[in-house]
Amino acid sequence: MPKVSWDSASKIEEVGPVRDRFEILDGYSANFTVFDEDIDATSLLKGLPEDRCQCPHWGYVIKGRMTVRLGDQEEVYEAGDAFYTPPGHVPLKHQAHTEVIMFSPEEELRRTGAAVAQNAEAEGMHVRRPEQQ
């Protein structure tokens, strides 16, 4: 059975203040994500349908706090919370030093990640994608 940890993940991605280590496990991306600074990712979703993340995520907040808009309401996830964000959500605020583990369908995450990286570069953020390794 495949497994991965922060230390064993072979893929590394950085988008601005967000560090991500991950591995693809049977069509799903298992991501260990750290937000080094407060971040509102709204602008990074420009160009996606309705300017919203189109990838579902299942996850667990290890440390910190994050706020996500789902439809017309906001959900706050804090350390110790397991969560599910369906397609069409907007990551509004992730506090500095927040750490999460997320599982997402690889194909949807790849498409969303490409748009996020393009928008981040346009905003002058540092971007390091796995294919650059």
TrEMBL record:
InterPro entries: Cupin_2, RmlC-like_jellyroll, RmlC_Cupin_sf. Pfam families: Cupin_2. Signal peptide: none annotated. It comes from the Bacteria. Residues 57-95 form the Cupin type-2 domain. This is Cupin domain-containing protein.
